[in-house]
Design brief:
heterotrimer; A mainly beta; B alpha/beta; C alpha/beta; A: mainly beta; two-stranded antiparallel ribbon; globular; B: alpha/beta; 8-stranded parallel beta barrel; 11 strands
């Protein structure tokens, strides 16, 4: 699975929400794109990740 | 078409009502700006400004600006020079019909006036066009009274086609039309549309337009916008100075032109300054007396408010006045003018709309322009 | 009665919008407070690990977040970033910033128009950053922009209002808030822009690179307020009369 451009091993199928929580992301402060499409926050608990997926996880920073 | 008498703010069935907020904005603007007294201070602010606001424009039209007329003239001449160089465009009007259904109490053509009515046949139109073209003019304005049966859209189309075959620039000053009709006449070869609101004060407007389709204020008001939507290249605005309050009307006309320019940036805008002149059977009007000073003030204020807009001076004014305003504010001048029906090739077929004060020929006006160090221009517009 | 700045359907009392680049997180709170800032623009970047400090935690509660699409090189990328930003859940504002030029960082006006149109249709409150061109500004207004943000000078240059004449044209002709963004180096330049009738100022580098950032933010706040007050007061102008008494142009008039 690719996350923010880095290849990462995915041991087992897991929901997006569980994965993000495991990585200690604060779900209020991020947004996620799965395979090029925006994932609405309401869907985090139902979307299941697989090894072929490409994820982008973003947050706000100073800049512009 | 049923000759129903419209209520002043009404569109009759056949009158196209377009979706636009410009009339409301002009009426509200007129209310907001004209209720104040302006001072010399504000006139000075306006004269020192690079870009005039509507408030500045209103100040320049007010009585407070009269002592500053010379300053206005100097600045206006500079602005005219900057935008137009030393060019003055020549043109002439051709009245092809004076039949009219409107009872406008100020006009020589009004339906109640017992004058000789006439309409040129297309053969006669062509003869006139030929005679005018022989003078070297390349810019023609076709005029009619308002009669959609005798001088209807098909007749207009044919006349325009003929005119376009002799002149690269064809304008029309006819009754207000619907968008599709403007589109049709544009395809026939017309690029410029003039419609004067006469007075922007709705009460006065209703008073002086007693019957006929012209009684509809909004249908007439929106003519320029319909013309532009009908692909016309340029539109002209004006009021009949002296019909209503001069300050009010000139301000509203300027504001109208300003908003239209903002909304249609590609449109070529021009302003005219017809002043009430004597005509056959002209009682019951009580016009405001607009002197030359006030007329000049209006022209200078127009120039400063819309530096890029054309300003036309007609033969209602005496020769010396016209001579002095070209290059100062006016950029378009008529020559070899006849204001009866026809009259260029043959005898006039119908009576005149008003009395003209400058009968000079094209050659004479050309000569005058050259003598004043300006450049007479015949064709500023070519349709490809 | 307050002189409010209205963008989209939001009212702001402050006309000072803060750019957030080049600041440390600790500094930003003080800057916002001293500047009286009610809107701050933030960029979107990858979140590589969880648990790191997040700028949102350093912002006061009621501040309006204006995400920007910095990093986008075309309209498609700008739209993608905007959608992600909105999903974080800080509201519908978006600053469209499409820059394909790495040398001068000048915005691509045409991609900006495209992005504005797409985003306005999706319900965003779009504030496009652009190079001041009247035709482009008209197109942006027609595309549904809620404001227009012309640059004063290249980003980070601190050169002030190089484009002042063209910004003035936008102020005169476009019926939307005109917000000068980029290039403002000193409070006096912000003041000058406001005197011209500009609706608000966005500023970043000038404050972030000051010795005392909080004090500089305050200086900007005061300058922007001063410029706005001057504009509302209606500056007088000096008339230099050019008339020549000996040969008046109006000597010919009768009656």
């Amino acid at each position: 699975m690719k996350i923010n451009g880095k290849v990462v091993a995915l041991e087992k199928k897991i929901t997006l929400q569980d994965y993000l929580n495991a990585q200690e992301f604060d779900l209020r402060l991020i947004a996620v794109e799965l395979n090029g499409k925006l994932v609405p926050k309401s869907a985090y608990a139902t979307v299941i990740l697989s090894d072929e997926d490409v994820l982008e996880i973003v947050r706000f920073v100073g800049g512009g | 078409m049923a000759k129903k008498r419209p209520e002043p703010m009404e569109h009759l069935d056949w009158m196209e009502a377009i979706d636009t907020d410009i009339m409301d904005r002009v009426l509200r603007g007129a209310e907001a700006y004209l209720c104040r007294q302006y001072t010399g201070r504000e006139v000075e602010n306006a004269l020192a400004a690079d870009h005039l606001s509507p408030g500045d424009f209103c100040a320049l039209l007010s009585p407070a600006a009269m002592p500053y007329l010379e300053d206005m003239a100097v600045k206006a001449r500079l602005e005219t020079r900057k935008k137009f160089g030393n060019c003055v465009q020549l043109f002439t009007p051709l009245y092809i019909s004076n039949y009219c259904d409107n009872h406008c109490i100020y006009c020589g053509f009004n339906c109640r006036n017992k004058i000789r009515r006439g309409i040129l046949s297309l053969v006669e139109v062509e003869a006139e066009l030929e005679a005018i073209a022989a003078t070297g003019l390349k810019d023609i304005l076709l005029l009619t009274g308002e009669n959609r049966s005798i001088s209807g859209i098909d007749y207009l189309g044919e006349a325009v086609k003929l005119a376009a075959s002799y002149f690269p620039a064809v304008g029309i000053e006819v009754y207000p039309l619907n968008v599709a009709e403007y589109l049709f006449l544009n395809k026939c070869g017309a690029d410029f549309v003039s419609v004067y609101q006469e007075t922007y004060n709705p009460l006065r407007y209703a008073q002086v337009h007693r019957s006929g389709p012209k009684r509809s204020y909004p249908y007439r008001f929106h003519a320029q916008e319909r013309a532009l939507r009908g692909n016309m290249h340029g539109v002209a605005f004006g009021v009949l100075l002296g019909l209503g309050d001069c300050h009010h009307d000139a301000f509203a006309a300027g504001l109208h032109a300003y908003f239209i320019q903002q909304k249609y940036p590609h449109a070529e805008i021009s302003l005219s300054v017809p002043r009430l002149r004597p005509y056959i059977n002209d009682r019951d009007l009580f016009p405001q007396n607009v002197g030359e000073k006030q007329l000049l003030q209006v022209m200078l204020a127009y120039r400063l408010f819309m530096p890029h807009a054309g300003i036309t001076i007609s033969t209602r004014e005496r020769a010396a006045f016209r001579d002095h305003v070209v290059g100062m504010a006016a950029t378009r001048i008529s020559a070899s003018v006849k204001v009866g029906v026809g009259g260029h090739k043959q005898e006039e077929k119908g009576d005149q709309q008003f009395c003209i004060a400058d009968p000079r020929s094209v050659k004479e006006v050309h000569q005058m322009i050259v003598e004043r160090g300006l450049q007479p221009v015949y064709a500023d517009h070519v349709r490809v | 009665m307050h002189d409010l700045l209205t963008i989209g359907k939001h009212d702001f009392r402050s006309r000072f919008i803060l750019g957030s680049g080049k600041f440390s997180l600790e500094m930003i709170k003080a800057v916002i407070e001293h500047g009286g800032v009610e809107m701050i623009t933030l960029a979107l970047r990858r979140a590589n690990i969880g648990g790191e400090a997040n700028i949102l935690d350093y912002l006061p509660e009621n501040i309006v977040v204006l995400p920007n699409t910095s990093g986008a090189r075309d309209a498609g990328e700008a739209v993608r970033i905007a959608r992600l930003a909105r999903e974080i859940g800080c509201g519908d504002f978006i600053k469209v910033e499409v820059i394909r030029d790495s040398k001068y960082l000048l915005p691509d006006n045409y991609e900006t128009i495209k992005a504005t149109e797409m985003l306005a249709k999706e319900g965003f409150i779009v504030m496009p950053y652009m190079y001041p061109d009247l035709n482009v500004a008209r197109a942006l207004a027609e595309a549904g922009a809620a404001a227009v943000m012309p640059l004063g000078a290249p980003i980070g240059s601190n050169k002030g209002l190089c484009t002042r004449d063209f910004i003035k044209i936008l102020v005169d002709e476009i019926n939307l808030p005109i917000i000068v963004d980029a290039g403002i180096g000193r409070p006096s330049q912000a003041c000058e822009a406001m005197e011209m009738g500009v609706a608000a100022i966005m500023c970043n580098t000038a404050i972030a690179t000051a010795n005392d950032t909080a004090l500089m933010a305050k200086a900007f706040k005061l300058a922007i307020e001063a410029g706005r007050a001057a504009y509302l007061a209606g500056p007088g102008r000096v008339l230099h009369s050019l008339a020549e008494a000996s040969s008046p142009l109006t000597g010919f008039l009768e009656e």
